[in-house]
Amino acid sequence: MTLTTQFITMLAMVGMGCVFGAALDTYNRFLKRTERNRLIVFINDILFWIVQGLAIFYILFLANKGELRGYIFLALLCGFAAYQSLFKGIYLRLLEILITMVINFYRFLLKLFHFVIYKPIRALIVAIISLFILLGKGLFSLLKAVLKLVLLILKLILLPVKWIFLLIWKLLPKHIKKTVDKIYNRMAGIIKQIKNYFLRWISRWNKNKK
């Protein structure tokens, strides 16, 4: 291994030590150990160390084809120490600023969605439903008015017919009137019996259903 390769490897490992320190602080910032289940924390820790180990080995492979030397661990430690003493405070402040910016941007997007998309769509749906209800009420009122008008016209048309039948009824002999009354009473009785039969049948059917 040439001196240039060794120098590049040391610089890379120092940089990876700093990156590891920043990654560790970021990981702890988002993990919130006291609020998590121990098993979840344990699994996350294992995954974190695996990812960091693979990342360091990948950079080492790019620098010197993956050859391990004692100074590599020393360079990692120096990079981590440099981060802790020089960059940790700055990085944590920048991290908090970035998190705050992301949260504010997310809230802005939510408000934008609420006021630009959700509220107009809801208002449009409410307006359409109200319009349909209004049209339905209008059509129903119109239908009632037309029906009343038709009934009035029918009454006016049938009124002379009614007068004619009343006049004919008055002119009929008494024995014919009595016969008609008997037929009418019989028909009314039959209709009443049929009605009572159906009412009893419906009542029994409802009881059996229960």
Strand proportion, as a percent range, falls in under 5%
Main structural class? mainly alpha
Order of helices and strands: HHHH
Gap from first CA to last CA: 94 Å
Number of helices: 4
Organism: Cytobacillus solani
Transmembrane segments: 7-27, 39-61, 68-84, 90-109, 121-143, 149-169
InterPro entries: YabQ
Protein name: Spore coat protein
Q: Can you describe this structure in just a few lines?
A:
Pfam families: Spore_YabQ. With 210 residues, this protein is mostly helical.
If you had to describe this structure to a student in words, what would you say it looks like?
This protein is mainly alpha-helical. Among the domains are: 3-101, no CATH class; 172-210. The chain has helices at residues 3-31, 38-64, 70-171, 174-209. InterPro entries: YabQ. It holds the Pfam family Spore_YabQ.
